[in-house]
Amino acid sequence: MQSLAVHFHFANYPSLLATASLKYHCSCCFWGRGSVPIRGTCAYGKLNYYLGKRAADEGRLAMFPDIDFCQNPGAICSDQHPDLKWIAGLFRWITEIQEYDVDGFNYMRQLRKYVDNGLKDSNFLDSVSGIVSQGCHKPPCRAGAQFLREEKRANFAKILKILGFTLPYMN
Q1: What is the Cα 120 distance to its own chain's centre?
Q2: Residues whose CB is less than 8 angstroms from the CB of residue 1 and which lie 6 or more positions away in sequence, other chains included
Q3: CA nearest neighbour of 25 among 113, 101, 91
Q4: What is the DSSP annotation of the chain?
Q5: What percent of the chain lies above the pLDDT cut of 70?
Q6: Is-above-0.85 flag for pTM?
Q7: CB of 47 within 8 A of CB of 91?
């Protein structure tokens, strides 16, 4: 079986989590843009601090020195930078999903366990879907929140099939 455990990182950038305190990148807040939607307090400020105009203005390497994500969060979905929605999604994945370690659920440990056990436990998928969509690993995370468990599982299986993989419980 091919391993699905992939750990993304920006090799040319300093640690995205440890370099700056919260005060440096929480000057703007917007919700929901990108392939893995950037959302939550300070996410756009963090993106701007590490990859956007603020990084460039402060003399750091910036992938998008011309974009101020705080002033123009819609730039993530613009035609000017078609790859940006994926980069923003990977940025969120790196800074929030891969680093998720809450109440005994550590994403990287759980991913390794899921892969080592042959992709057999769909609870891992549910947990990751909850982290991505609602910010917790035990969805639904808020009273009244909708969590489309079967739809999310089916979409994951569809993507794996496109990539040439199958899930043991979906054969």
Answers
A1: 23
A2: 118, 119
A3: 91
A4: ----------TTS--TTTSS-GGGT-S-----BTTTTB-STTHHHHHHHHHSHHHHHTT---S-TT--TTT-GGGGG-SSSTTHHHHHHHHHIIIIITT-EETTEEHHHHHHHHHHTTS--HHHHHHHHHHHHHSSSSSS-STT----HHHHHHHHHHHHHHTT---GGG-
A5: 74
A6: no
A7: yes
